[in-house]
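Hi L., both proteins are below.
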Amino acid sequence: DQAIQLQPNDALAYNNRGNARSALDDKQGAIADYDQAIQLQPNDALVYHNRGFARYALGDHHGAIADYDQAIQLQPNDALVYHNRGNARYNLGNKQGAIADYDQAIQLQPDDAIAYNNRGLARYDLGDHQGAIADYDQAIQLQPNDALVYHNRGFARYDLGDHQGAIADYDQAIQLQPNDALVYHNRGNARYNLGNKQGAIADYQQAANLYQKQGKESACQSALNQIKKLQSSTPPKNDPPNFWQRLFGG
C-alpha cells in the first residue's frame, strides 16, 4: 500500500499486492490489483497468468482461459500457463483441449509429474484407460511417493478388470496415506470382485470409520451399505474420486 501511495504508476507494486491478497484468499481484491497492473503495463505475461489463476480459483474458468491465452501469446514457452489452462479447460469439459495443453506443458517441462497425472485424468475420462495408466506410470516414476497417483492408477486398472493390479496400487496409496477413506472403499470393491468378501468387509468398515471421523455421514452410510450388498450377486459399484480429489488429493 505504501509503495503504491508513493508510486501510483508502479505496475509491479500492484502485481505484488495482488499476489499478497491472493495468498490471503482475497481473490476479488487480487483481481482488482491485477487489473490495475495490466492497465499500467499491458504486455506483462506474468500478471495475466496471476489474474487467470485468481479467476480460476473463483470458478471463472472462461475468464481464466482468456487470461492464460493472453499470457501464452506474450510468453509462449511457460509450461505452467499451459498446465493451468489445461486445468481450466478440463473443468469446462473440454478434455481434448486439456490434453493438448498438458501435452505442451510436458514438452516444455518433461519432469512435471502433476501434468502427467492430470493428462491421465483427461485420457481416462475420454475412455483411454491404457493411455491414462501410461501417464500415471510416468507420474509415479517422477514422484514415487504421491498416494494420489497410485489411487488414480488403481482406479483405471480396476475399470480394465485388473483387480489384482488395482489392489496393489491401493495398497501403496494406503501405505503412503493411511487415512484416505476412499482408497479403502475402492480396495474393498476390488477385493469383492476377486471373491475376498472378508477382506472387502474389512476395507468397507475401515472406510466407514474414517468417513465418520471426518463427518462424512453420507459416505459412511454408503460404505456400510456396501457390506450389506456382499450377499447379493451384483458387485458393488466402484466409487470414483471426484476431480479435485484426483487432481489435488483433497
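That was the first. Here is the second:
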Amino acid sequence: MNMNKIKYIGKIVRMISIILIAFSLVLFNSCKDKIVNPGPKPEPIPDSIPNPVLKGNYALCYTKSYNDHWEIFATNFKGTDPQNISNHPYDDEYPQWSPDGRYIVYSTGYNIYVYDTKNKTETNVTSDGGSASQNPFWTPNGKICFNYPYAYSKFRGTWIINPDGSNKQNILDSIATDEIYFYPDSFTFLYEDEVHKLHKTNIEHTFDDFILDIGYGDNYIPIFGFNPNTNELLIEPNDVNGLALFNINSKTMDIFYNADANYSIQRCCYSSDFSKIAIIEFNSTNGRYLSILENGSKYNLIRIPITTPMVSFGWSPIQFSPDDKYIAYSKQYWQNGDWVSWKEYLYIIDVNSGVETIVVEGLNPSWNPKP
C-alpha cells in the first residue's frame, strides 16, 4: 500500500472519529439537560427561613442531605433557624418526636439515639451491643420501641426502653415488622410477625391472638393505620382498588372508599382525632393528588400534573399536625443534588384553605406534639 493511500485512509478515520465525538457530545448534553433542567422546581432556599405556618405553636424535625450523608434537623419552637441535632459519621435517619415533646429519637449506624431538646444532649440507648434496626418509634407513654433483627445479635427480638436508656424490656422474642400499633395504655399492642400475620398481645405476652393474614407479594394487604378507639385497621384490600376498615374484634371488613379504575393509592394516614384521612393517589392521565377523605366525601388539596414528570410526591410519610389544621409532606424533584440525582423538599398545607407553604429541603417530617 503506497503512502498516499495510507494518508488518505488516515484522514477518513480522523474525520469519522471527529463526527463520532461531536455526536457523543450532543447526545451527552441532551441527556445532561434532562437531569439538570427537569422543569418546575423550588427556588434555592437556605437552611434557615421564616415560615408563617411554623411560627408559634408548630415545630418539625426531619432528615436532610448534608455533607454527603443524612443528618437530623429540628426547628426551634418559633419554626426558624433549623438546627442539626445529630452530626454523626453514619447516616442519621427516621426522626420522631416523643409524645411529651422533649425528645427526638432517630437511628444511626445500627444504633438508636435520643436527643434531649431541653438539655441539648444525646444518648445512645443501644450501646450495650447488638445491631438495632431502623424506624424506632414511641409508645404512647414515652418509651422507645425497636428491633434487634439479626440472628447473631444476643438481643434479637422486639424491645422497649426509656429515653435515657434505662429499663430495657424484651416484649417479643421474634421480630415485629413495621406494622406495630400500641393501644393508649402502652401495654396492649398489635404486631406483624415474620411470616406476615397480624397478632394482638401485650408487653408481658400473657396472650397472643391471631388477627389477620397480611400476606406478601401480590397478596400483601397494606396497613395504613389503626384506630384504637374503634379497634379498626385502615387497609387497602388486595382485591379492591380502595380503602377499607377491618374490625379486629368481629373480623369484618367495611369498604368505605372505592378509587377510580385508573387511580392507584400510594399511601395515606389518619388525622390525630381519626376524623379525616389524608391520601396520596396517582392517576396515569391526570397526575398525582393529595386529598382528604372525610364523612364519606373526598376533596383534592394538591395536584401535580402528569405533564411535570420530574416532580412527584416524595416517599416520606404524610402527617397531620397535632391540631389537624395542617399536613406535612414532601415533594421530590429530579435534579442535580449534592450526592444524589434528586432533592426532596418539605411542604405544609393548610387543610381548610389549601394554602401550600414550602418549609425547607428535607424529608421524613415529624411534628412536635407538645410545642
